[in-house]
């Protein structure tokens, strides 16, 4: 449908047209310039990522996106609502440069620029994602999602050079009673309801509160699968005195998923031919369960120190319980009889906990007759995890039989005692950091800083860890540098550099832990604020160089993987000189009054020194677009829009079970089209209809890790009735 140059060409045309259209602010009222109180735009975040909003997710400095020397995408509450995005993963599916693939029907794999995304932030504080990741949390509690692409070690510390996802919680900022009530109904018996209320708790509005509650229930296009859950979130903000502000809050999310499909559908029949499974086909059993509970709490205190200087302290906590009783199916069934599949039940339980603290001072200072900014601080994070298992009595594990006839009515085995399996231990990271923005010249700024980190992992005894061990890395310095040159009042050029450090728990064929990932991250580009800030455009090129990158260790003679001694886990080897390079184009904002758009194109290559693709399950070229137009005049109140997702075929291959030759198994290039229609029934009440995968495209939405695939969702629809007051 698309060739690689077409999105670039369209992007250039759109940018050119935006440059030639007069700024609408000349005809706007002051109220419109500052935002529309009670309307669809607020005074700091203009829809679809444009506007003059500032963020601290990249460096800790208060920077606009044009002042940030890295690629940044902001997905606002408006766009989240337009896409009817229930989870953060739904939001990220239409974010420039990101790939969201299913591991199974319970988890997602996120990646960018050839590397997995493991760096998450909650209100700017770093948190590690889990087996069921933070991307599965409900969007009901978030005001926006900020995605910083590239390495973010300055604030994140250890991590991948892919992207950092900052999820910004809703705030209690209402000084009069305001709120929103939503009701949704959709395909596969989806029903949900949400209430979001903010109000002052004191007459002068110095203490304010906000409460969000959401409940849902739905089935799925996959046989047997159903889920239900709820989310609660409450937050308080208080002006304690002159220059003293307090925020605190907590959230609770519970998801119960039944009949969930864990193992993927096999690529091959035993004779080497490819099956054509129904999209509703499952490898799950009717007693499968995959339940999760997330609890979070936070407190933040800000104190003005005089002038522009400010002290801020943050403390945040996150806990998850994952209880998953599942079965794993593998093998290549006989084309005629359906026999030949193997099975093993598994009852996983994990209760990871983590908390993070940050103390930060920021402000302006004068030097050489110019004003500059400075941020310095200290961070501490503590993580505790591990998982247990219950094995079945082998005598109670029934055979699969004819997989063609599999309907999930498989007998639950007799379970043994629970035991510690792996991952028990604590990970601590401490750091001090500092960064400054020098105003070198009127149009030239330098952002320079660094982070000094210590990272420790204490692993306890478990099945896969017969002996406790300790991994420790002290005084790791992570530099950061960025130059921003203003080429005019609306256009800037930038270049940035940072190093990469990421401890690994991957082990080689002897059982030894691999050395940390190390490398360098380079990025350069152009950024423009057009239409008086109503539209942003950016173009970036990047290069990531890594050493010690963990890849599966395969016997070159047999093609079989080496295993870590004493475990069923595949051993890893360190790949030297892995390089990922590419470019990204993006535009977000409102090029014409009433027309909102977010569009992006990304292209990268990632290879080891032998020219072999790494992270081969990731598509190399990705196009994303979301748009909406609000009519005026006789059609005022109507809105139409939609989104488009196109991806190239990833270079993933797998060996045919008969020929033993590698064959392409990645999803061929495909496009998904979603449509949106909305109507304001009154000033407060609106009706919205979303239709996803309009042309009912059949496609794989999987990372191909386990020799199989997961289908993406067929055509589906959702209706939302929204009342705001």
Description:
By secondary structure, this protein is mainly β. 5% of the residues lie in helices and 53% in strands. The strands form 6 sheets. The chain has a 23-stranded antiparallel beta sheet that branches. A 5-stranded mixed beta sheet has the order 1-7-8-5-6. A hairpin with a 2-residue loop joins strand 5 and strand 6. It is globular, with a radius of gyration of 26 Å. The relative contact order is 0.13.
- Report the sheet-strand fraction: over 45%
Percent helix: under 10%
Largest sheet: 23 strands, antiparallel
Any low-confidence stretches, pLDDT <50, length ≥5? 1-45
Q: Give me the count of strands.
A: 37
Mean pLDDT: 90
Count of DSSP H/I helices:
5
Compute the gyration radius: what is it? 26 Å
SS-derived structural category: mainly beta
Shape: globular
Q: What is the end-to-end distance?
A: 43 Å
Characteristic terms for this protein:
globular; 23-stranded antiparallel β-sheet; single chain; 725 residues; mainly beta
Write a brief structural summary:
This protein has 725 residues and is mainly β.
Could you give the topology of this structure?
Layout: H1 5-20, H2 30-34, E1 72-76, H3 77-82, H4 88-92, E2 98-102, E3 108-112, E4 115-116, E5 119-122, E6 125-128, E7 142-149, H5 153-156, E8 163-169, E9 178-186, E10 190-200, E11 207-219, E12 226-241, E13 244-258, E14 265-266, E15 289-306, E16 309-330, E17 342-350, E18 353-367, E19 370-392, E20 415-441, E21 444-459, E22 469-486, E23 491-502, E24 517-530, E25 535-547, E26 549-552, E27 572-575, E28 578-592, E29 595-607, E30 621-630, E31 638-647, E32 653-655, E33 662-664, E34 670-680, E35 685-692, E36 708-709, E37 716-724
Parallel strand pairs: 5-8
Antiparallel strand pairs: 1-7, 2-3, 3-4, 5-6, 7-8, 9-10, 9-37, 10-11, 11-12, 12-13, 13-15, 14-36, 15-16, 16-17, 16-18, 17-19, 18-19, 19-20, 20-21, 21-22, 22-23, 23-24, 24-25, 25-28, 26-27, 28-29, 29-30, 30-31, 31-34, 32-33, 34-35, 35-37
């Amino acid at each position: 449908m698309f060739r690689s140059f077409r999105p670039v060409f369209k992007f250039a045309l759109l940018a050119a047209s935006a440059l030639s259209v007069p700024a609408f602010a000349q005809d706007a009222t002051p109220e419109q310039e500052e935002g529309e109180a009670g309307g669809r735009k607020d005074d700091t975040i203009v829809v679809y990522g444009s506007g003059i909003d500032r963020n601290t997710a990249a460096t800790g400095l208060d920077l606009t996106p044009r002042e940030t020397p890295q690629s940044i995408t902001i997905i606002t509450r408006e766009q989240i609502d337009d896409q009817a995005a229930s989870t953060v993963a739904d939001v990220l599916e239409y974010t420039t440069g990101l790939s969201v693939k299913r591991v199974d029907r319970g988890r997602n794999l996120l990646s960018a620029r050839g590397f997995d995304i493991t760096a998450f932030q909650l209100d700017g504080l770093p948190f590690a994602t889990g087996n069921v990741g933070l991307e599965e949390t409900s969007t009901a509690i978030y005001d926006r999602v900020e995605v910083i692409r590239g390495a973010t070690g300055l604030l994140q510390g250890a991590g991948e050079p892919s992207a950092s996802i900052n999820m910004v919680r809703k705030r209690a900022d209402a000084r009069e009673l305001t709120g929103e009530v939503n009701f949704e109904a959709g395909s596969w018996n989806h029903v949900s309801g949400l209430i979001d209320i903010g109000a002052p708790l004191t007459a002068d509005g110095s203490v304010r509160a906000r409460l969000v509650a959401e409940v849902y229930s739905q089935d799925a296009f996959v046989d047997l699968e159903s889920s239900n859950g709820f989310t609660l979130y409450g937050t308080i903000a208080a002006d304690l005195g002159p220059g003293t502000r307090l925020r605190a809050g907590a959230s609770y999310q519970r998801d119960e998923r039944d009949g969930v499909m864990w193992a993927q559908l096999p690529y091959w029949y035993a004779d080497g031919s490819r099956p054509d499974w129904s999209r509703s086909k499952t490898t799950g059993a009717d007693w499968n369960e995959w339940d999760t509970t997330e609890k979070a709490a936070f407190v933040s205190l800000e104190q003005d120190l005089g002038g522009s200087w400010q002290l801020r302290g943050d403390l945040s906590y996150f806990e998850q319980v994952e209880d998953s009783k599942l079965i794993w199916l593998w093998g290549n069934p006989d084309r005629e009889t359906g026999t030949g599949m193997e099975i093993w039940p598994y009852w996983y339980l994990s209760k990871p906990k983590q908390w993070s603290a940050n103390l930060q001072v920021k402000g302006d200072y004068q030097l050489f007759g110019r004003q500059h900014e400075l941020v310095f601080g200290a961070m501490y994070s503590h993580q505790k995890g591990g998982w247990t298992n219950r094995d079945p009595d082998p005598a109670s594990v029934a055979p699969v039989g004819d997989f063609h006839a599999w309907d999930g009515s498989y007998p639950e085995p007799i379970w043994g005692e629970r035991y510690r399996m792996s991952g028990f231990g604590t990970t601590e990271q401490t750091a001090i950091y500092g960064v400054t923005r020098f105003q070198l010249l009127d149009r030239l700024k330098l952002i320079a800083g660094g982070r000094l980190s210590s990272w420790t992992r204490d692993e306890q005894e478990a099945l896969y860890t017969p002996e406790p061990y300790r991994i420790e890395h002290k005084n790791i310095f992570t530099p950061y540098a960025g130059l921003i040159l203003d080429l005019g009042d609306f256009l800037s050029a930038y270049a940035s550099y940072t190093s990469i450090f990421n401890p690994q728990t991957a082990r080689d064929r002897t059982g030894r832990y691999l050395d940390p990932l190390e490398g360098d991250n380079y990025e350069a580009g152009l950024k423009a604020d057009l239409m008086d800030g109503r539209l942003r455009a950016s173009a970036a090129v990047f290069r990531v160089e890594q050493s010690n990158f963990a890849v599966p260790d395969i016997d070159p003679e047999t093609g079989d993987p080496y295993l870590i001694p004493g475990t069923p886990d595949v051993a890893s080897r360190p790949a030297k000189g892995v390089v990922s390079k590419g470019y990204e184009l993006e535009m977000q904002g409102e090029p014409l009054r009433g027309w909102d758009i977010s569009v992006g194109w990304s292209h990268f290559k990632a290879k080891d020194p032998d020219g072999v693709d790494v992270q081969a399950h990731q598509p190399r070229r990705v196009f994303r677009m979301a748009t909406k137009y609000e009519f005026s005049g006789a059609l005022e109140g109507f809105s139409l829009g939609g989104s488009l997702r196109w991806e190239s075929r990833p270079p993933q291959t797998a060996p045919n079970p008969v020929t033993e030759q590698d064959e392409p198994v990645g999803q061929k290039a495909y496009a998904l089209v979603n449509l949106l229609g909305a109507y304001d029934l009154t000033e407060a009440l609106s009706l919205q209809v979303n239709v996803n995968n309009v042309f009912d495209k059949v496609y794989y939405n999987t990372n191909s890790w386990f020799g199989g695939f997961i289908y993406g969702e067929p055509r589906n629809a959702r209706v939302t009735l929204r009342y705001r007051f």
